[in-house]
Write a structure and sequence with these properties.
By secondary structure, this protein is mainly α. 62% of the residues lie in helices and 0% in strands. It comes from Streptomyces poonensis.
Length: 157
């Protein structure tokens, strides 16, 4: 399967994506734990059905030492005992921030307060930006039908 668009071959899209990718690298350098970042990126991508992002974040997380058990249980994190309370709060915020159209009230105060118990302001800002970034990346990849399966860990870093 070939992608509908090659974003990097288009001058306008290429320029825009250069800045978007720079934002993604900035988030990687934030004080939000790297493992949490990968879990959140994976969960947002699962919700949105972005195969190429699921491929990427599963492989990057595994290469960074994440266990197969935790990766397999991200989709069912509420019932899984393998995540810390802070990770659970981040996954809860990621789901609420991704499913804004499904949740009439958007991200509720209880969800926000739970995340704020575990992360400082800089980490919360990085978490919110990561959720928004992943939703953007997912939509770009889904619309263009980017194929999945060939990603090599660290390919875009």
């Amino acid at each position: 399967m070939d992608a509908r668009l090659n974003y990097f071959a288009d001058p306008t899209a290429g320029k825009a994506l250069k800045h978007l990718m720079a934002a993604g690298r900035t988030l990687k350098e934030s004080p939000l734990p790297a493992a949490t970042q990968e879990l959140v990126a994976l969960r947002v991508s699962q919700i949105n059905g972005c195969a190429v992002c699921i491929d990427m974040h599963t492989k990057d997380a595994a290469a960074a030492g994440e266990t197969a058990v935790r990766l397999h249980l991200v989709a069912a994190w509420r019932e899984a005992t393998v995540f810390t309370e802070a990770e659970r709060a981040a996954l809860e915020l990621a789901e609420a921030g991704t499913r804004v159209a499904d949740a009439a009230g958007g991200v509720g105060d209880e969800v926000w307060a739970h995340a704020a118990q575990h992360y400082d302001q800089e980490q919360l800002a990085a978490l919110v930006l990561l959720i928004a970034f992943m939703n953007t990346a997912n939509r770009l990849n889904i619309i263009a039908q980017q194929p999945a399966g060939d990603y090599e860990p660290g390919q875009f870093h």
